[in-house]
């Protein structure tokens, strides 16, 4: 095992959100710009995924509502159709 050089940075063991093993990162004394940039990248990835799923659900609901409205319209027209009425017989049409 190799020794890391001594620096003024604090070594912090962190777990990532992936299945990889824990990694050793260095958070520098200046506020951890790199760490912050990585976390911002993960946050933006999560936001994109959330937006993508919300868009898929919106489209699904819109298509479902359109389909249900069309089905209801067809059912209404068929229920008003005299040919589907139980009392309808072709002999009574004249």
From TrEMBL:
Superkingdom in the source lineage: Eukaryota
Chain intervals for the UniProt region annotation (Disordered): 69-94
Biased composition (Low complexity): 78-94
Protein name as catalogued: Uncharacterized protein
Organism: Phytophthora infestans
